[in-house]
Amino acid sequence: MASSLTCAGVIWAFLSFLCAATSCVGFFMPYWLLGSQLEKSVSFGTFRRCSYPVRDESRQMTVMVEQCGRYASFQAIPSAEWRICTVVTGLGCGLLLLVALTALMGCCVSELISRTVGRVAGGIQFLGGKCSCGQGMGM
């Protein structure tokens, strides 16, 4: 198996893949915020939620739906900030995954990644990491 990466490049490729996979899993999980509402445990993320209140018109009261799911549409996400966060985090995860998979392919294919391509990929990865980590810093 020929490789176009140095030993440091191989380590970078595998760590990049682990970080990208972790970011993507975190993006898809609805456990960003945990709390309780109507004496039930609730959690939600940018586009998924678990245990959420709905209005039951037949009984004229609010009841808790105790299941997890996505919002029905993009506009159903509670605020503009959360919609922006969903788009930016999704783009960041996509960039991280693209660079990580390209780096892993560089472990198997010779002459795939040059020094310049490695630097550009590192820059893209940095931007992707800033996009996907931005929501944790109050952005």
From TrEMBL:
It is found in: Membrane. It is a multi-pass membrane protein. Keywords: Membrane, Transmembrane, Transmembrane helix. It comes from the Eukaryota. Pfam families: L_HMGIC_fpl. One of its GO terms (cellular component) is membrane. The chain crosses the membrane at residues 87-109. The keyword RNA-binding does not apply. This is LHPL6 protein.
